[in-house]
Amino acid sequence: MQFVCALDDVPVGEGVRITSVTPPIAVFRTEDDDVYAIDDTCTHQDASLADGWLEGCWVECPLHASRFDLRTGLVDQPPAKRPVRVHVATVRDGGIWVELSGEVPHLPPGVTLEAG
Amino acid sequence: MTTTPDATTAPAGESSLIPTLPGAAYVDPAVFDRECERIFEDMWFCAAHESDLPGPGAFRTVQVGRESILLTRSRRGELRAFYNVCRHRGARICLEDSGEKARSFQCPYHAWTYDFDGRLIAAPNLTKMPDIDRVDYGLRAVHVRSWMGYVWVSLAAVPPSFEDTVEAEVVARLGTVDNIATYDIASLSIGRRITYEVKANWKLIVENFMECYHCATIHPELTEVLPEFADGLAAQYFVDHGAEFGEDIKGFTIDGSEGLGVLPGLDEYRDRKYYAITIKPQVFVNLVPDHVIWHRMYPLSEQLTIVECDWLYTPDVVTSGRDVSASVELFHRVNQQDFEACERTQPSMSSRLYRDGGVLVPSEHHIGEFHAWVTARTDSQKADSQEGG
């Protein structure tokens, strides 16, 4: 588990990109005040999902409208085809803590781990 | 108000005829270019009705001078206006005349994506370019405001005073701004909209609207309803002069039949009268007891002008589905008659016979003031001093 940000840093209904981990992750706080963490980068093209639109437990990529399920990382429709990784997120003492997934991330073409 | 005895006669010792602009003013693309720069892109421009933008993300694109402007509302419902130009490589963002976006405006070329406040919210690889400021590279805003239920924009860096320009036109015609407030135009709804494509220079359309020397000849129905129009003097010739309905006329309708009552709160003495205002450079307003007819022009080239005309009634009349066709038909026919006359005139503007222009009779002499106004605004000396500054 590692601390990524304060709960107050993430407004309800929005997401925040966390760059202190590689590759960057996105932390979302749903309208029901549940907190989720997934890889921030869309698997189709380099776009920040934290800048996308959160609806229920789904986030829509701001570029080409593929939607990712925050609970499973699965994508609903092309152009993205591969899932994003899901990280275990918990809220403790007003902070958001994350257990990073050990899987290999599905990064889009041109995005490497070194690039961050 | 009474008719002044000399309105159709030149003052003693003066010529009955004064010149119009030369023909080239109506056909030269360079003149139109200058008018776009100095007039349409430098003043307040009536771009749409508020109801054309019912909510966040609803949009309309309009041509203002040489620019395509994107009108919308923010998430909070506030009016927004932007150049319809992607800040990346310049592709037009919205090609449609109108529509509604759920989330954002996205350039169809490289997917630069903007929110309804114009802010750049996403672009491919944007996270790798942290030095791109999302406001600096957001859609470029233009000034926007609402007046009389209409959305007005100004592309000027510093827009002119609304009071000294738009409202001053109302004062010049009606005496005070209060005299138009009595119609409570912002509260009215669009009962009918008709869009006309007029193959004529915008100035011919303004000139036509400013005079009534043609009324008895081309507007038989209108002259039946407003008999005094047969004297050739426009309602716009005098301050706060309403043209009186004919004795047997019950309403401002194609056949003089009953209209739709009287607008609530209208000054009593304005019943059974017609008033007209030209708000330079591109709006014409007609005020009658039961409705308001609001024209705005979108000049597209030196010889093509789109005119959008709204017939505005109380929301009650519109929602109840009352038949407005008899009142729409009267001014629709007037529009068709006027625009046909303008289209008949336009081809002659390039005739060698019209190189030095035509003439204005005394009841048209006030059109000379419009010509002087256009000339002053497009005057080349002003151009040089502006470019120098």
TrEMBL record, chain A:
Record keywords, A-Z: 2Fe-2S, Dioxygenase, Iron, Iron-sulfur, Metal-binding, Oxidoreductase
Ranges of residues in domain Rieske: 2-98
Pfam families noted in UniProt: Rieske
Gene3D superfamilies from the UniProt entry: Rieske [2Fe-2S] iron-sulphur domain
InterPro entries: Rieske_2Fe-2S, Rieske_2Fe-2S_sf
Molecular function GO terms recorded: 2 iron, 2 sulfur cluster binding; dioxygenase activity; metal ion binding; monooxygenase activity; oxidoreductase activity, acting on paired donors, with incorporation or reduction of molecular oxygen
CDD domains: Rieske_RO_ferredoxin
Protein name: 3-phenylpropionate/trans-cinnamate dioxygenase ferredoxin subunit
Taxonomy of the source species: Bacteria, Bacillati, Actinomycetota, Actinomycetes, Propionibacteriales
UniProtKB/TrEMBL annotation, chain B:
Listed cofactors: Fe cation
Coiled coil (UniProt feature): none
Segments forming domain Rieske: 44-153
Protein species of origin: Nocardioides psychrotolerans
GO molecular function: 2 iron, 2 sulfur cluster binding; iron ion binding; monooxygenase activity; oxidoreductase activity, acting on paired donors, with incorporation or reduction of molecular oxygen
InterPro entries xref list: Rieske_2Fe-2S (IPR017941), Rieske_2Fe-2S_sf (IPR036922), Ring_hydroxy_dOase_asu_C_dom (IPR015879), Rng_hydr_dOase-A (IPR001663)
CDD domains in alphabetical order: RHO_alpha_C_GbcA-like, Rieske_RO_Alpha_N
Sorted UniProt keywords: 2Fe-2S, Iron, Iron-sulfur, Metal-binding, Oxidoreductase
Name under which the protein is recorded: Rieske 2Fe-2S family protein
